[in-house]
Amino acid sequence: MATVSVVTDKEFETQVLKSDTPVLVDFWAAWCSPCRMVAPIVEEIAKDYQDTLRVFKLDVDENIDTAFKYQVQSIPTLILFKDGKPAERIVGFKPKERLVAQLQPYIAAK
Length: 110
What we know:
This protein is an alpha/beta fold. It contains four helices and five strands. The longest helix is centred in the middle third of the chain and has 16 residues, at 33-48.
């Protein structure tokens, strides 16, 4: 079963930007209530698309450089990276169906 892994500023390039597979990054913080609401949905997406999508969480309080580089000003922010570049950005809480609908053009079901 796929799980959501943690990524840091130091690992971001190798884990996300150089991935051959699309990567969804959940930019979050422990104090953020909407982030805690979206977390189980992100876990479900990681499980549902484990063969075609990698999923990471990046704590914006501990990884300021990456959050700044990708202009994350509100959390939760989900950014889908494909071929090393941001392909889709989702800001705020959304139900699973809406998240999947936005991600679907970039990922395929198992």
